[in-house]
């Protein structure tokens, strides 16, 4: 949330240069506030688990957030009861004429498929195109991030020989970007994916900038220059035992997965995992909601199109 200060306070100039959001008393007195409208496109198999993970983080903010859940198709889910899907999920046709403050597109267990071989690829493309006019900010997670780079920016991912799984150390690439407000210089984040993006291609693209990266696993946070699209190459929403569940599931399926890196105590899968990313994950979502949704979105969402806004002069 912004800091409210007296009009013309000298500290305002310094704070503004550091991208600290301050609000004058005059502006604060005339500000209208309403709930944020956030849409979640849930592509994960276990819908209820993913809903819970994301809602837990969305709730960790003083903002009031109204959430709609969307499914990619109405086919029966193997992992989620039909009654749940029919009661709580909307189809794209139900909301395509609406605007939202924020959209979250989750990851999906499709890491080894070409995008064009995904059965609902055409619909994913339609939703991504729609989001660029109907959502103030879009948060792409893991597989969705790679899909967004491919469709919106023409960048291809590189498939890995083995699954990238574990909790990796990352560093901020920019100091004063609002999304990184409160982040330590280094922080941990979980990854679970079969592909990665080229850091060199991301750095060279004029419409993208890297905010955080890892020496081991490459770019982690990337944002578009118009601040509309935020790409997260990992899974900050994962709970402490999620990677353990995936590892033991793959063992049971005879897939011979590698042990998740820097995750189990003493690297022993019989011992409890170590959760070391929840602080950064909650701060990431809180900063996204505050600086890239709440502070940018129009008060009236009932306009035909939400225009892109670029309010932050970010320092390298």
UniProtKB/TrEMBL annotation:
First-level EC class: transferase
Cellular component per GO, a single term: cytoplasm
Binding-site residues, substrate: 163, 192, 249
Enzyme Commission identifier(s): 2.3.1.46
Gene Ontology MF terms: homoserine O-acetyltransferase activity; homoserine O-succinyltransferase activity
Active site: residue positions: 142, 235, 237
InterPro entries (alphabetical): Class_I_gatase-like, HST_MetA, MetA_family
Keyword Amino-acid biosynthesis belongs to the record: yes
Site residues (Important for acyl-CoA specificity), renumbered to this chain: 111
Sites marked Important for substrate specificity: 192
Pathway: Amino-acid biosynthesis; L-methionine biosynthesis via de novo pathway; O-succinyl-L-homoserine from L-homoserine: step 1/1
Gene3D superfamilies per UniProt: 3.40.50.880
Catalytic activity: L-homoserine + succinyl-CoA = O-succinyl-L-homoserine + CoA
Localization (cell): Cytoplasm
Primary localization: cytoplasm
Keywords, alphabetical: Acyltransferase, Amino-acid biosynthesis, Cytoplasm, Methionine biosynthesis, Transferase
Pfam families: HTS
GO BP: L-methionine biosynthetic process from homoserine via O-succinyl-L-homoserine and cystathionine
Family the UniProt entry places it in: Belongs to the MetA family.
Role of this protein: Transfers a succinyl group from succinyl-CoA to L-homoserine, forming succinyl-L-homoserine.
NCBIfam families named in the record: metA
Protein name per the record: Homoserine O-succinyltransferase
Organism, as annotated: Paraferrimonas sedimenticola
């Amino acid at each position: 949330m912004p800091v409210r200060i007296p009009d013309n306070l000298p500290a305002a100039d310094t704070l503004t240069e550091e991208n600290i959001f301050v609000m004058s008393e005059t502006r604060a007195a005339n500000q209208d506030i309403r709930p944020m409208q956030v849409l979640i496109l849930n592509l994960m198999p276990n819908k209820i688990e993913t809903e819970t993970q994301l809602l837990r983080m969305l709730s960790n903010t003083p903002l009031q957030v109204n959430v709609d859940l969307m499914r990619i198709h109405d086919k029966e889910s193997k992992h989620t009861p039909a009654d749940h899907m029919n009661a709580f999920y909307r189809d794209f046709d139900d909301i395509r004429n609406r605007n939202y403050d924020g959209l979250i597109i989750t990851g999906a267990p499709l890491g080894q498929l070409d995008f064009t071989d995904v059965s609902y690829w055409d619909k994913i493309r339609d939703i991504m195109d729609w989001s660029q006019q109907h959502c103030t900010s879009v948060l792409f997670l893991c597989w969705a991030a790679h899909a967004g780079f491919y469709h919106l920016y023409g960048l291809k991912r590189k498939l890995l020989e083995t699954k990238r799984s574990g909790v990796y150390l990352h560093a901020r690439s920019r100091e004063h970007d609002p999304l990184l407000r409160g982040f330590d210089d280094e922080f941990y984040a979980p990854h679970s994916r079969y592909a990665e993006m080229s850091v060199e291609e991301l750095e060279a693209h004029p419409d993208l900038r890297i905010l955080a990266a890892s020496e081991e696993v490459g770019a982690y946070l990337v944002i578009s220059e118009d601040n509309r699209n935020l790409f997260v190459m990992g899974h900050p929403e994962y709970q402490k035992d999620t990677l353990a569940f995936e590892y033991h599931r793959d063992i049971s399926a005879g897939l011979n997965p590698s042990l998740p890196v820097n995750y189990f105590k003493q690297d022993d899968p019989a011992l409890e995992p170590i959760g070391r990313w929840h602080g950064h994950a909650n701060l990431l979502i809180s900063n996204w909601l505050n600086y890239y949704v709440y502070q940018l979105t129009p008060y009236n969402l009932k306009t035909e199109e939400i225009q892109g806004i670029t309010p932050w002069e970010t320092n390298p």
